Amino acid sequence: MGMGNVEEPQNSNISSAHQLAGAAAGLNLYDTASHAVSPFKPIRPGHVGIYVCGATVQSSPHIGHIRAAVAFDIIRRWMLRLGYDVTFVRNVTDIDDKILDKAAAAGQQWWARAYYYEREFTRAYDTLGVLPPTVEPRATGHIPDMVELIEHIIRNGHAYVVRDAEGNPTGNVYFDVASWPHYGELTHQKQGVAETDEAAAVADRMGPSVDAAGDDKYNPIDPADASPDKHDPRDFALWKAPKATDPQDARWATPFGVGRPGWHIECSAMSHRYLGEAFDIHGGGLDLRFPHHENEMAQTRAAGWNSAARWMHSAWVTAKGEKMSKSLGNGLSVPAVLAEHSAWVVRYALGSVQYRSMLEWSDQTLTEAQAAYERVSNFIDRAGAALGEQPGRDEISAIGADALPQDFVAAMNNDINVSGATAAIFSAIRDGNAVLSQVQGALDDTTRAQVRATLVAVRAMLDTLGLDPLADPWAVASADSEDSKASKALDALISAQLEARQEARAAKDFATADAIRDSLTSAGILIEDAPTGSTWSLK
């Protein structure tokens, strides 16, 4: 988004249909603030406003970053499939202590570094099939919005300006936590009060705590928040005086002194700018619940605005049980992972569990994703060959939720239960393969209709998860991809084996024929014999 420019948002929808599906009434989603799954009812009928915290563009994206993007992309796609008109806002934090410090150490302009890595994040999103946001505002483009918001909070008595000995504003402004009795309501972590709900406490222990002593390895303390000028240790920076090392073009003049924005104020200002005083869902990673989202909720409401109606958080990607992050040295960069695995496989792996579940990243995770790709592509190719056509993208994207299999709809409506939805996809694939295996010669009209309906349903379900192999970006890359080459090579090898088996059977060399079948079976290949010849599929 340009520097403060506002244009009418253009929707990036996977479905052109805007009629709300009957299935929309059954959608239930978790809310971090209530610790409960409850029916979803939008503020405006037929429309959903979603704000998701995007990247701090200090360096290259890693798999942990992109997992959150994929998780909320799936949520958004399901809303669209239900027929909602979705405004999806994902911000870019392009000014931050880490950006300034790393740029200085590398001899770069801070804004040039931020833009370079912003583009790298965009390439990663595009490569992994994440729909572009309706609006993607940059923090630096919304300084006037932040200043206005801070002035609201000060006037309402919930923030204070730090002044020097002569009474001049220093550039430091802090939120006065003691003045806001609702502080802590998002994460249910009142200082000194233990969480009594054990199920909720398990989730809270996975993230930072209000009562945690010492530095937090996932959310290092902002130097401004460690200032002795604060009235209360819990108070947090809304506006920060510049460090001596900060460049001149990283400072803005305001009524409360020269400085730059605190981290939390950015999202309150940008969500209000594009979604108004009330919107449906605020999303982000689990590690943002505290302090970022707790502080964001407090300052937004203290300004006199409504906060998000529902807060949703995606869990971490873990490596051997530890959160994947740059600060811990176990981050896997997206380019490095994509150098070894296809983008479809990586996307499938990132979205393979429900968004609130921790995702353990391992070779086994990727192996299972590769096997899923082979099962999916094998069925789609096989069904298309039997039909002599593939349904067009317009047909697939126009399929509403009410036309999808009930078990898939039930799973997605159950707080976006992707595991259950995936099970429904593979159940349909098994049924489709079973019908195809019984075919002798050309399809009759009844069987053709059955196969086509299954193929459309499978592709529409996959499309809801961003995984239809014949949609962009997969269709663009599929012809020359390593997966395509591997699939063709596999088909050639197995076809040669089936031909050799057929020759052995013709020669009544049943021992050789059985040995070939057993070898293929042990490799996970299912052989179906018919009068017209043998076909294969992955188990």
Automatic annotation (TrEMBL):
The keyword 4Fe-4S does not apply. One of its GO terms (molecular function) is zinc ion binding. CDD domains: CysRS_core. Residues 208-231 are annotated as: Disordered. Its main location: cytoplasm. ATP binds at residue 326. It is found in: Cytoplasm. Binds 1 zinc ion per subunit. Its cofactor is Zn(2+). Its EC number is 6.1.1.16. SUPFAM superfamilies: Anticodon-binding domain of a subclass of class I aminoacyl-tRNA synthetases, Nucleotidylyl transferase. Monomer. NCBIfam families: cysS. This is Cysteine--tRNA ligase. It comes from Bifidobacterium apri.
